[in-house]
Amino acid sequence: MAVGAASAQVWFAPPQPGRLQRIVRVARRNPLGAAAFVILLLMTLMSVFAPIVTGGVDPYAISTSGRLQPPGPGHILGTDDLGRDVFTRIVYGGRISLWVGFISVGISQGIGATLGIVGAYKGGWADFAIQRVVDALFAFPTIILALAIVAVIGRGLIPVTVAVGIVSTPRVARIARAATMSVIAQPYLEATTCMGATSVRVILRHILPNIMAPLLVIGTAGFGGAILAEASLSFLGLGTPPPQPSWGTMLSGNAQLYARSAPYLAIFPGIAISLGVFGFNLLGDALRDIFDPRLRGS
Question: I need a labelling partner for 112 at 20 to 30 A (CA). Which of 119, 140, 156, 162 fits?
Answer without folding.
Answer: 156
